[in-house]
Amino acid sequence: MKKTVFALAISLLAASQAMAAGISDKVSFSGALGYMNGGDTISSFRFSDGASQNLKAGSGVVFAGGINYRVHNDWSVVASIGYQVDRASATNGDAKMERVPLEVGGFYHINDQFRVGAALRKASNVKYTSSGAAYSGNYDFESDVSPVIEAEYMTSTQLGIRLRYVSEKYKVKGYNANVDANHFGISAVFYY
User: Fold this and answer.
1) How many other β-carbons are positioned within 10 Å of the β-carbon of residue 47?
2) Tens digit of each residue's pLDDT (9 = 90 or more) over 111-138
3) CA gap 145, 103 in Å, rounded
4) Alpha helices, DSSP H only, in the chain?
5) Number of Cβ within a 10 Å radius of residue 139
6) Which residues of 57-69 are buried (b: 16+ CB within 10 A; e: fewer)?
């Protein structure tokens, strides 16, 4: 987590220096909200009303903030930090899979509306926790640097719709077990 906070601080410092240097028209900030789906099932739950839910290693809601630098008309560099969580809750128990992903990558701008990109992602603080009737253990995971591919459609200069695929694996700390966390997702990205 300390490395993640350090990387975010360096990114924000670089952005403030870029703006002070008079290139603020090339720097923007972004916020994203999305949903990811995929990966191995970590746990399954059946509720008293007959409904069921699976918590998956790659699934969940994602909130992220980032900084974007337009290197050239055709290229931009992006760095972001986020929080991804998948949760099952009932009155008598709770379980969640959460992580903090840090990503650095670039986009090629096909035109003013479409861009495609690739990034490297490192998830930190990856953990599964459970309590009450949903208790099935608590586990910490390690992750490697993972590739990301994505495409974005800009509906305006302030809003983009992003599709992405992440090829990710986790290793359960203390066990000789690997977990597939590959996932697809869609996000709304707000630029300011």
Assistant:
1) 13
2) 999 999 999 999 999 999 999 888 889 9
3) 9
4) 2-20
5) 19
6) bbbbebebbbbbb
